Amino acid sequence: MIQDHASPARAVVHLDLGAEVRAADGRPVGFLSAVVVDPRGWIVTHVLVRHGAIVTVDRVVARADLHRVRDHRIELALTAEQLEEMPELQERAYVPLTGVDVGSEEHPALSAPGLWTRTPAIALQPLVSDHTTDEANVVEAWRNVPEGSLVLRDGLAVRVRSGRAVARLSEVAMDPASGAVAAILVSRAGHLKAVPAGWIERADEETGIVLAVDRRAVDELPSDHAQPNDAPAQ
User: Is the pLDDT of residue 106 over 70?
Assistant: First the structure.
């Protein structure tokens, strides 16, 4: 169980959005770009690690692969090589509409779609890539997180019950044993405030997190000065 240095009984760990992420050998491998939550019970299921030197991608890492949070720095139970094997958040494939033999030399599995006029549908000659086909394609895109999950990113709007945005998401505090969200730490007027998870009424990735309280309740919350955590994840 993760415990706070200043308060050993504090059984929560802070997932600081934007925090440095290190592999099991201590090598920096990226930063925390998002926390993935099951909104049915507000349980953290995964985190996203922004990884890559030239081309960066969001790698999906299960909560079970978080080893430790130290000074708001996240340490994984994965090596850098294992992180490379984790799925990307967003993936897509080009699926031919005409039932061609996908995977053949003529029609590679991930070939770019052909160029077609709208009416009538006439295939144009490939202009850019030798992988462009003369077959109509549709793009299938998906996310490698459980269906219905919320991907919470730094700066997501936090609104009171009137719908007014009053703060921005900064951290997620969770129970390391169960993954349950204990609080969200939000930035308001230069102060970090811990909003109890029980105040959350609903949330989506476009509107943000909507609280069941008014602005005054948020203003009356004490400013949070969380101390560094230093204990293994479970």
Answer: no
DSSP 8-state symbol, 30:
E
Same domain, 62 and 104: no
141 pLDDT band, cuts 50/70/90, is confident
Look at the chain and report how many structural domains it folds into: 3
Please indicate, yes or no, if residue 3 is contained in any of the structural domains: no
Q: Does residue 157 sit in the same domain as residue 228?
A: yes
- Structural contact between residues 9 and 2, judged by C-beta atoms closer than 8 angstroms: no
Query: In terms of domains, do 164 and 131 share one?
Result: no
pLDDT tens digits, one per residue of 193-208: 999 999 999 999 999 9
Question: Range with the lowest mean pLDDT among 17-21, 170-174, 207-211, 220-224?
Answer: 220-224
Number of residues that this document lists for the chain? 234
Contact present, 66 and 19 (Cβ < 8 Å): no
Say how far apart CA 118 and CA 173 lie, in whole Å.
51
DSSP conformation class of 163: S
DSSP 3-state of 84? helix
In a domain, 146, yes or no: no
Beta bridge partners of 93: 140
> What is the domain extent for residue 191?
153-232
Please list, in sequence order, all residues whose beta carbon lies within 8 angstroms of the beta carbon of residue 156, skipping any fewer than 6 positions away.
Answer: 168, 169, 205, 208, 209
